[in-house]
Amino acid sequence: MEDNLTEAAPRRVSAIVTSFNNAAALRRCLTALEASTAREAMEVLVVDRGSSDGCPDMDTEFPSVNLLRLPRNFGRVKALNIGMRTGTGEFYLFLEPEMEVAPDAVERLAAALDAAPEAAAACPLAVDAAGTVLTRRHPLPLPAELRKAWPAGELDGWETPPAEGTAATDLDYFKPPAVMVRSYFMRGLRYIDERYGDAWWDLEIATQIAKSSKKVLLVPAARLTVHPRGTDAGAPAAVRGLLAADRAMSASLWCGKHYGSMQGLKFRLAATLQAMLSLFTFRDLGFHWAAFQNLLSGQKLDGSQRVM
User: Would residue 304 count as lying in a domain?
Assistant: First the structure.
């Protein structure tokens, strides 16, 4: 009887991990979640985006994990939304497979949110395997900063936050994108706008938190190790071009939503022109041609693409 009551108890945290052909990293991530001190109060959901490696079979190794298999790579945003609609927790914890939580990290993040009703989200302190702090913060960017950032997907001007104590940030944008968010807040937004494909979804969440006058907490006592992952540099030119176009169109959407529709239109036109002019450098022509074509047609990473 007692066991049945325990199993029926609501889960406080829904940990949501999206995977795509990164089985070794996913295995390490799930092993860490299984060892969490908050495991009994947490459900773990993996949304696999059409992987062709061992990711879709990971529930045979981790039978307590709820693995949702998508037939294609519909992009990170759709996968996260499916995970949130499935999850039942009071908090959503967004993780990438390359992230390995410390045993008490999930518990500390939830406790920090319990103690701070003015906060909508809490971030762990991310470090690498050698203990070097990787967490960075950035003010919400201006459209001009995103115009510079979209080709490589990286903003300039990141700062390292204080790594001691438990500090409330003044609504910064954080990387890496590991964050625990109150589920009622995300449901109030109707989850993440699915006009985003794969990029800048975390910027959208940070912006919505800022617009609601809520806070993001950095919880340095909650540690998370980020392991290296493969870069896109070795991917086929068509794939790299698609991902670049996805970054540009998602940034254009963000600018249009938060700075007005004309800013969004100007962003996309400028990005398309930039991609076209890059063709005349005669370097990595396949990549620039794919980026230009995808921007011109509006193709993003949403499941309708043919190259992934």
Answer: no
pTM for this entry? 0.94
Check: CB of residue 80 under 8 Å from CB of residue 199: no
Helix axes 76-86, 201-211, angle to 10 degrees: 60
- Bond preceding residue 71 cis, omega within 30 of 0: no
Tokens 């959901």 correspond to: 45
At residue 93, φ and ψ (nearest 5 deg) are: -110, 115
Helix (H) or strand (E) segment spanning residue 17: strand 13-19
C-alpha pair distances (Å), 37 with each of 40, 102, 129, 259: 8, 9, 21, 43
Cα distance between residue 59 and residue 263, in whole Å = 44
Spatial CA neighbour of 109 closest among 226, 15, 213: 15
Last residue of a domain, one of 226, 250, 284: 226
Domain count, the chain: 2
Give residue-wise pLDDT tens across range 214-265.
999 999 999 999 999 877 777 999 999 999 999 999 999 999 999 999 999 9
Structural domain for 206, as ranges: 2-226
CA distance linking residue 19 with residue 65, whole number of Å: 13
Which residue, chain included where needed, has tokens 């990170």? 76
Contact at 8 Å (CB) between 41 and 13? yes
Q: Look at residues 226, 251, 281 and tell me which one is the last residue of a structural domain.
A: 226
In a domain, 308, yes or no: no
Task: Identify which of 119, 84, 102, 99 has the alpha carbon closest to the alpha carbon of residue 28.
Answer: 99
pLDDT in tens, 96-143: 999 999 999 999 999 999 999 999 999 999 999 999 999 999 999 999
Q: Say yes or no: 127 and 30 in one domain.
A: yes
